[in-house]
C-alpha cells in the first residue's frame, strides 16, 4: 500500500518548547517513513497600527526579525538532525517563508504528506489548550496534521500502542490507514475504537436486563468494525489489533485509551459531520485534551 505520508513531512517552528517537541517527533516519524523533512519558520509581514509608529525605522525591525528567524531555523534544523539517524542529515532541509503564518502553512500543506506543529507556539496564552497556528491548521490544512504537546509529564514507552477512532466516514478511513501504517513501522499494537452510539454509557439495573435486540446491535457493530478493518489487516498482517466497541460518546473513550498510548489518530470530522464542516466535535475534543501526539486526518476534499 502507498504510504499516506510519502510526499514528505513539514514541521513548523517558532522557537517555543512546543515547536522543539514537534521537530523531534517529526524527525523520528520522517525517518520511520523514509521521507524528507522540511523545517519551516514563517515570518509574518510587518504591521504598524499604533499612532506614531510610522516614523519607526522598519528596516531595523526587519533585520532583527530576519536575524531571529535565522537563529530559530538553525536551532530547529540542528534538533532535527540530532533526532534522526546520522545518515538522514541530507534529508532535512529548512526554509524561511515571508507571508501570513497560517495561510502560508496551509499553502504548504497542498504538497506535503503531513504537517507537524506544536500545540502552542511562542507567545501563546497561558493555559490555552491549542494555539492559533495549530488550530488554524487542523481546521484548514489540505493534508493530515500532527499536533505535538511538550508538557507530557510521563512520556510513553516505545512499545505503547497507537489508538485510532473508526466510524466509517471518509476521513476515518484515511485515519485508519495512517494508524495501521504508523503501527506497522513502529512495531506496536493498534487499538481500534468504534463507538456505535453517541447516547452515553448504557447502564441497566441488573445483568442481562437489556433486551436481546439491544445486545444484538452491539454484536452487529462489532462485526461492522471487523469488516472495516479487514482490508487493512490483510495489508498489514504484522499489526496486532485490539478492537474496542463501546456504546458511548467517542471522544472520552478515545482520550481514555490515549492515556496509555504513544499516538492517537482521528478523522477531521466523522459520521455526524455536515458538508463543509472544518473540524468535528470528536477531533476537536481529542486534539485539545490529549497529552500525546494526535494526527488529524485531513484531505483537500474534506476541507
Automatic annotation (TrEMBL):
Q: Which InterPro entries match?
A: Rossmann-like_a/b/a_fold, Universal_stress_UspA, UspA
Which Gene Ontology BP terms does the record give? response to hypoxia
What Gene3D superfamilies does this protein's entry cite?
Answer: HUPs
Query: Pfam families under this entry?
Result: Usp (PF00582)
This protein's source sits in the domain of life called Bacteria
For this UniProt record, the keywords arranged alphabetically read as follows: ATP-binding, Nucleotide-binding
Any idea where the UspA domain is? Answer: 9-149, 161-298
Where does the signal sequence lie?
A: none
Extract one GO molecular function annotation from the record. Answer: ATP binding
What family does this chain come from, according to its entry? Belongs to the universal stress protein A family.
Protein name, as recorded: Universal stress protein
Q: Which organism is it from?
A: Mycolicibacterium vanbaalenii (Mycobacterium vanbaalenii)
Amino acid at each position: 500500500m502507498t504510504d499516506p505520508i510519502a510526499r514528505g513531512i513539514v514541521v513548523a517552528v517558532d522557537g517555543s518548547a512546543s515547536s522543539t517537541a514537534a521537530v523531534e517527533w517529526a524527525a523520528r516519524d520522517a525517518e520511520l517513513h523514509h521521507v524528507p523533512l522540511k523545517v519551516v519558520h514563517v515570518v509574518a509581514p510587518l504591521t504598524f497600527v499604533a499612532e506614531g509608529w510610522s516614523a519607526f525605522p522598519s528596516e531595523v525591525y526587519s533585520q532583527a526579525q530576519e536575524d531571529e528567524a535565522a537563529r530559530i531555523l538553525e536551532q530547529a534544523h540542528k534538533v532535527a538532525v540530532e533526532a534522526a539517524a546520522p545518515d538522514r542529515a541530507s534529508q532535512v532541509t529548512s526554509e524561511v517563508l515571508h507571508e501570513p503564518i497560517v495561510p502560508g502553512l496551509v499553502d504548504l500543506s497542498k504538497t506535503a504528506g503531513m504537517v507537524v506543529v506544536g500545540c502552542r507556539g511562542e507567545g501563546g496564552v497561558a493555559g490555552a489548550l491549542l494555539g492559533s497556528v495549530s488550530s488554524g491548521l487542523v481546521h484548514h490544512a489540505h493534508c493530515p496534521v500532527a499536533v505535538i504537546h511538550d508538557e507530557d509529564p510521563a512520556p510513553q514507552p516505545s512499545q505503547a500502542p497507537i489508538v485510532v477512532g473508526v466510524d466509517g466516514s471518509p476521513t476515518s478511513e484515511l485515519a485508519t490507514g495512517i494508524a495501521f501504517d504508523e503501527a506497522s513501522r513502529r512495531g506496536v499494537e493498534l487499538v481500534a475504537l468504534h463507538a456505535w452510539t453517541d447516547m452515553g454509557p448504557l447502564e441497566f439495573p441488573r445483568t442481562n436486563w437489556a433486551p436481546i435486540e439491544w445486545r444484538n446491535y452491539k454484536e452487529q457493530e462489532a462485526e461492522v468494525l471487523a469488516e472495516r478493518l479487514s482490508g487493512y489487516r490483510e495489508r498489514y498482517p504484522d499489526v496486532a489489533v485490539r478492537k474496542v466497541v463501546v456504546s458511548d460518546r467517542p471522544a472520552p473513550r478515545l482520550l481514555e485509551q490515549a492515556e496509555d498510548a504513544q499516538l492517537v489518530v482521528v478523522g477531521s470530522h466523522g459520521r455526524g459531520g455536515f458538508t463543509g464542516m472544518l473540524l468535528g466535535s470528536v477531533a476537536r475534543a481529542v486534539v485539545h485534551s490529549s497529552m500525546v501526539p494526535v494526527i488529524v486526518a485531513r484531505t483537500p476534499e474534506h476541507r
